[in-house]
Amino acid sequence: MTPAGGALPITIRDATKAYGRIFALDNIDLDIRSGEFMTLLGPSGSGKTTLLMVLAGFTRPDYGSIKFGEREIVRTPPHKRDLGMVFQNYALFPHMTVADNVAFPLKLRGVSKPEAEQRVEQALETVQLGGYGERRIDQLSGGQRQRVALARAIVFEPRILLMDEPLSALDKKLREQMQIELRRLHDKLGMTTVYVTHDQREALTMSDRIAVINHGRVMQLGTPNEIYERPANRFVADFIGESTFLPVSVQDGVANFAGQTLKVAQLPGSTDHLLLMLRPERLQLITNGTEIVDDEVNAFRASVREMVYQGDSFLMYTALEDGTEVTVRGMTRRDMVSNLPAIGDAVQLALHSDDTVLVAAGEA
Amino acid sequence: MKWFSRPASETQITNGQRLWLYVVAWLVMIFLLAPTVIVIPMSFSDSQYLEFPPRVWSFRWYEHYFGSPAWMQATATSLKAGVLTMLVATPIGVMAAYGLFVSKMRAASLIFLILVMPIMVPVILVAIGVFYVYVKVSLVNSLLGLVLAHSILAIPLVVVVVSSALKSYDMNQEMAARSLGASRFKAFMVITLPQIRFSVITSALLSFLTSFDEVIVAMFVSGGENSTLTRNMFNALRDQIDPTIASISTIMIIVSTSLLILAQAFGKSDNES
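Structure tokens for the assembled complex are given below, as produced in the milestone run.
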């Protein structure tokens, strides 16, 4: 079921869409590579869904250009764009059987009945719903509906697949299972996939690259690793993962924080208004009071304020000497739990220089 | 009497304590139904005049009705007007309801109000207005004029019924159909229409009845060979009290009630699907 003629790259130039005085899309340039799994990640109202609707053809941008391959499609109506789309609430047709739903795009393309039947069954098998063709939609669970919607979107072998938060209605366990499944399906079929979500973990799990979007602009474009490890600005750092941000001053290429020099792997280009990003899981808890002497580790003195047990991990709220609150996450392994400090104890927080990331305080 | 001490519903109140409510409810039902139902026995009377209860039973007034060319022509006019009104009002009303539903215009609710206005103002006002316009454009006493005037009254019903059906319809389905390769028109015909079909059928039946039962507008704009059944009945009542009216009424009651029951049945299954 791989797309005939291969996947298509998508080129977005200057895409702009304003609703009144609010820019849902503000001059977006984005190149989506052929066969890539690209996730548009952002909070609600960021413009990510608008961008997807522009790709699907349901929203026309005020100006800008959208190309599928070499073909300019900004004025092409949705039904002539030849792309598969999966909607948030599945949008299955309740008055048709599962097989009729999946056969719908084939019928519109004039595929002969025997061939259509065969391709429908093949698509249903691809989403692990072989033999479900005669079921009615209301006899299916949420996860099965999701699969039918997917089968319907891929059965005509589109070269581009769009997905609008397709897993948001599923419970956590099923959602995580479907994330892996969707990714495998993408690798198997090889079409260009554009996936919209507000769930950062989902984006990190599934994507080749992530475009973090806010206020109608691309805040950062990069691999999951780049986005998480080297966020371009405070918005991205804040939106992906949990972090504490602490102001840092830079003089003569040396970063200072709370009276101590920070060992940093790399300084950002601009050194105005920098923040130190502290990820709770990257801080190491030192409880035995040994002095840390390591060229590659920053150490901060702190005292324990509060502990929260979360099953697989614990959160420890600590306060630095100047009173700043910093959160540390640790796994609840036996060796860690056995010598956890009590509330009020003095501890040290160690941070490797590679994890000592400075981000610009501004957004852009 | 065990029945008296049994609970009336999921409460502690017994049927005995509820007795007054049952009496009131039945009185209201009788009050509503009696004037309509009373013509049925009257229509089977052998008497020259409308009488209740009939002393001698007979079918003669049904024979008189079916044997009268004037009554038959009026019946034909009413049926034609009813069917044509249905054919005009249903598509226009469905299109209007759909348009208002998908429209993001601020004026949409204003347009909705304008569309349903004809059922909010007294029909006599519509009738007078239509009459004066028709005099100018020579549509008085024509079938076309009658159908257009009845459509004014029927379209609001279609808009209201179909709008409420669309409210529970998920428009994303149409978007999905379009993304899968269906034009907008095709998506509406194949995906949306089948799912709101029961309310469309219901509103078509109501459109027919609106025209078939209507008398006030018909008094003003129908006449001559295009007189409706209701108009002729009204005139017959004024000129001579003839039990033929009762037999026609009985037939109309049966037609209208059956259509309303049909409409209700269809309306129900829309909600279920």
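Chain B touches chain A at residues 170, 172-173, 175-184, 186-187, 191, 194-195, 273 (CB under 8 Å). Chain B has a mean pLDDT of 88. Further analysis is deferred to the final report.
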